[in-house]
Give the backbone structure.
Amino acid sequence: MAVHSNFDEYSYDMLSVSRDILTHCDTALSRNTLDPSKQRKLESMRSQLNQSDQEKRVTLKYSDIKFLHSCLQESCDENKESSPHLYELMEMTSLQLPSPPSLDKSDAYVARMERLRLLAEEAEYQKMTKNISSASEPNEGIGKELKVMDSQVTFLFNFILTVVGAFVFGYKGVEYSLPTPNVSLQLTVGVTLATIVFFADVYFIIKKYV
């Protein structure tokens, strides 16, 4: 099978999970249909399996499983019986991979890991303090806006007061300066002074805020 042929390129060991492999070895040996070289090799493999099985650890290469499969096919063909498929034999094993080599931690590696740990802690601290400062910013912004609003209200009050004061000054000034009241003249002078003060205030507003 093409799926399993790639195993031949590697020295993978298999860990047996049952005694069925031994049973198949016994089956192939008991029929006496193999040539002497295969017979000896299969007997050697069975002896290895039996010893390993007693130690609760079986190690076989994929090529050994394929050899057992070919022996079973040959003996079954001679007796016109069906032999187990290769995948059925593979299901009785599990792949045993070697443990990765342990890496010695050099002084440079330890120093670098310590530096990275400190950098991570510093980044976490900056993140925490950023959240705290961000939480206090809205209160500071509200206080600043209140100060600006108070300044604007005061300026508007002064603006209205000066315009109204100029009108009253012109209106009453003319009234007190004439022997008889002249409402039209009083209004004219009051409005004129109020207009002059109004545009003067507007000029200073533009000069200050624009």
About this structure: The radius of gyration is 52 Å.
